[in-house]
């Protein structure tokens, strides 16, 4: 009985498809972030985003369904906050400032969504979600009075988002000109106060 060899296959076909899919998704998300940041949610269009990504608009719809789905994917933000309960109490303020400087400088999504949030309710709602789902729970681990968590978290956010807005979105020269060390030196004591001081 003659041996039967398996049918030949295209060994690279299957691995290539996921790689092409990943590259297409990445191109779409990059284009979407830029377009949402530049035009806002309402004015940004699937057609313009597809053109920026160099693909057919049907591909955007295939992967993300509609503009709302694309915006949700493009504005996914992970602040990667550390476990503050494991941080020495006297270092909380400095660690948070340094961490947020790293996030601002390392994640264009955060900057882009802040731009959108200033002018669009969808962007504002997205950032409120980040605040509720990530910042507030992280600070709960070190808040001395649970009933004051929301107020303290809002005060902390005012400093971190405010500096991020001035330095990375508006590019205000005095804010841009500050070194990281200066920003930490200025902001860390304020955040430390918000996190650990008694209610005034």
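^ structure tokens above, recovered residues below v
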């Amino acid at each position: 009985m003659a041996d039967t060899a398996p049918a030949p296959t295209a060994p690279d076909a299957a691995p290539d498809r996921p790689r092409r899919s990943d590259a297409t998704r990445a191109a779409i998300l990059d284009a979407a972030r830029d377009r949402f940041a530049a035009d806002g949610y309402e004015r940004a269009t699937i057609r313009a985003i597809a053109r920026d990504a160099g693909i057919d608009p049907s591909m955007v719809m295939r992967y993300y369904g509609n503009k709302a789905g694309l915006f949700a994917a493009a504005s996914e933000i992970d602040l990667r906050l550390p476990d503050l309960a494991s941080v020495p109490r006297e270092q909380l303020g400095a660690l948070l400032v340094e961490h947020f400087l790293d996030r601002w400088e390392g994640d264009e999504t955060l900057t882009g969504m802040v731009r959108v949030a200033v002018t669009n309710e969808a962007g504002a709602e997205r950032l409120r979600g980040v605040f509720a789902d990530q910042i507030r729970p992280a600070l709960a681990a070190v808040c001395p009075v649970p009933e004051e968590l929301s107020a303290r978290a809002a005060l902390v956010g005012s400093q971190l988002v405010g500096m991020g807005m001035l330095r990375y979105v508006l590019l205000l020269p005095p804010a841009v000109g500050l070194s990281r060390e200066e920003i930490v030196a200025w902001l860390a004591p304020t955040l430390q106060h918000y996190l650990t001081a008694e209610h005034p």
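The longest helix spans residues 13-43.
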